[in-house]
Amino acid sequence: MIILGINAYHPDASVALLKDGALIWAGEEERFNRIKHSSGFPQLALKQCLRDCGMASSDVDVVAISKNPQANFRRKLLFALTALREPVFLANRVKAFRKTSQFQQDYFRALSIQASSVRIKFVHVEHHCAHAASSFFLSGFENAAFLSLDGMGDFSSAMWGHGEGNKLRILDRIYFPHSAGFLYTAGTQFLGFLNFGDEYKVMGLAAYGKPVYVEHFNRMIRLLPKGRFELDLAFFRHQNGLAKVRWEAGKPEQDLMFSERWLDLLGKPRQAQDPITDRDQNIAASLQAVLEEIYFHILNHLHEVTHQENLCLAGGVAFNSVANGKIASRTSFRRVFIQPAAGDAGTAIGAAAYADRALYNRKGSFKMTRADYGNQWSEAEIKNAIEAKGMHLEKLTEDALLRKTAHALADGKIVGWFQGRMEFGPRALGHRSILADPRRQEMKDRLNQRIKHRENFRPFAPSVPEEDADQFFEMDEGDSPFMLKVFPVKQEKKSVIPAATHVDGTARVQTVSRDSNPRFWNLLREFGKLTGVPVLLNTSFNENEPIVCSIKDALDCFQSTHMDLLVIENYWIEKQK
Q1: Residue 576 has what pLDDT?
Q2: What's the pLDDT band for 99 if we cut at 50, 70, 90?
Q3: Which CATH superfamily is domain 141-241+251-338 in?
Q4: What's the Rg (C-alpha) of the chain?
Q5: CA-CA distance, 546 to 549, in Å (whole number)?
Q6: Same-fold call for 2-130 versus 141-241+251-338
Q7: Which helix or strand (DSSP H or E) is residue 215 part of?
Q8: pLDDT tens track for 422-471
Q9: pLDDT tens, 261-297?
Q10: Is 538 within 8 Å of 409 (Cβ atoms)?
Q11: Which residue, 81, 86, 127, is CA-closest to 233?
């Protein structure tokens, strides 16, 4: 059975394909249209998916959409009735329903086919069910607790329960307008980070501050029994329809979510161009602390009612790697699975998996151990693209390539690393990466200022072979394959890998297994043989744009930045002097 999962009319539009229960392809629209967090219908990703899988539209049996306008209908109706004085809110709901209802038309139009020419079943999967399915059904666990936590989807901001076999048993939810994700987004905006998806910047900034404003934030949110919570809505604008997500030509923009009450508590918001002050750092630290308080409030209740040691996480808050790294110490969960596209892009996988397992009751044993499910380029395409740019290239054997790259990195060179299939999700995991030597204290600033052109407070992540991870990091779990957990760097190793160690002595670790990414694993081992440190600084291959997708994207980024070398498959490319 061929099932397509699609996240559409929502930021991070995406497509995934399951064949007989196994994930075959997954990718975000932003990689193809080059618009970060692209919204709308993922037409380019859909076409690329079928092309890469060698399938025609007639081969697809089911299309699962990670949005269900009928979900939580009674809640929506009740809220709408109480919000009749807020015509903006009602207009937004009607507009969203109309957009979802045109999905089938957009699907057929994207593939240039007539509805009558194919037999396809369309199914709608509630947003948080898709999130939960994307984690539990790909975790390899037979039993696990699950939590989906984000801003809002299908009128809900959180859902938790117990997964067993092919079933997701929902235990409770948090409904709109109450949302931990919205609290964090409002704080992100208050700190002057106004682009959609900037929340991760606050997480990095928090390490520089002290949580002295926790009591201020506690006035905005109240924890309730049984894992529940609610916002003091006087501090927010979204409940009135005044803080919607808008997108023009696919680019999402989020209206301001905080009300004037924030100014009474915290003073004036930081403007985007203003320097970052001690107050801003302390606000970030306080916001992070309060989010963690909510997170573990839910998780400890979830463990209490499920008695599970396995936990599956999804939703935008599951990208908070600082909180994720504390789960073992702050809860009784012992094994945690988070798939690499834990945010809304991952609901494409989740919708397909939910249809396959929960709706069609098909047995499944697929476990997601890697992230490279996107497109790949042929050798002819690679060679032609490089030669068309008039660039000098050298083709090397595997062993020579690894040795030469390791030596270049050890000499302080910054290397673009473009290998195999593209990763799914926002993390570069050794397929579309920029690599550097973590032993050099100055490397973090070099990357921020000369390559990434981003804020200096933001850290870079280390990649390490999974069998060597416990030599460098205090990890309570054996692996962190998708770079979604932050752990302390061992005291004696902080001076060894200073560029990968954040100001608070932690690092967002990626453990690399030989099975999941053999070439990257071999490069790490080769660098370790040469230097005694099998760790590389690993950041995404991009510059203020989506991660590179095509060979042209990679070559353009290489030429426009101060990268020293580019390695595309077995081709070695240096800049002309």
Answers
A1: 76
A2: low
A3: ATPase, nucleotide binding domain (3.30.420.40)
A4: 23
A5: 8
A6: yes
A7: helix 214-218
A8: 999 999 999 999 999 999 999 999 998 888 888 999 999 999 999 999 99
A9: 999 999 999 999 999 999 999 999 999 999 999 999 9
A10: no
A11: 86
Inter-residue contact 336 to 109 (CB < 8 Å): no
Tell me the three-class secondary structure of 84-119, residue by residue.
Answer: CCCHHHHHHHHHHHHHHHCHHHHHHHHHCCCHHHCC
Domain edges within the chain? 2-130, 141-241+251-338, 379-574
Q: Are 537 and 458 in contact (CB under 8 A)?
A: no
Q: Write the Ramachandran bin of 250: left for phi over 0, alpha for psi from -120 to 50, otherwise beta.
A: left
- Look at residue 453 in the predicted model and tell me its pLDDT: 87
d(CA 298, CA 228) in angstroms, rounded, equals 7
Q: How far apart are CA 470 and CA 69, in angstroms?
A: 46
- Phi, psi of 415, deg, nearest 5: -120, 125
Provide DSSP, 129-171: HHHHHHHHTTS--SEEEEEEEEEEETTEEEEEEEEETTEEEEE
Backbone angles phi, psi at 55, to 5 degrees: -120, 150
**């060179």: which residue's tokens?**
413
In angstroms, rounded to a whole number, what is the distance separating the alpha carbons of residues 539 and 169?
Answer: 38
- Considering only the top CATH level, what class is 2-130? alpha beta
> H or E stretch including 80?
helix 73-82
**Domain 379-574, second-level architecture:** Alpha-Beta Complex (3.90)
> Is 519 in contact with 525 (CB distance < 8 Å)?
no
Give Dmax over CA atoms of the chain in angstroms: 70
Cα 371 from Cα 375, distance rounded (Å): 12
pLDDT in tens, 134-179: 999 999 999 999 999 999 999 999 999 999 999 999 999 999 999 9
Question: 476-481 long-range CB contacts below 8 Å, 24 or more apart?
Answer: 476/328, 476/329, 477/328, 477/335, 477/336, 478/511, 479/511, 479/513, 480/509, 480/510, 480/511, 481/369, 481/370, 481/371, 481/429, 481/510, 481/511, 481/512, 481/513, 481/516
Q: Return the higher-pLDDT residue of 84 and 483.
A: 483
Residue bearing tokens 């109240």: 222
Mean predicted lDDT score pLDDT of the chain = 94
Q: What percent of the chain is predicted at pLDDT more than 90?
A: 87
Q: Are 143 and 310 in contact (CB under 8 A)?
A: yes
Length of the chain: 577
What 8-state DSSP symbol labels residue 60? -
Q: Identify which of 315, 287, 385 has the alpha carbon closest to the alpha carbon of residue 135.
A: 315
Structure tokens at 147: 């939590």
Amino acid at 394: E
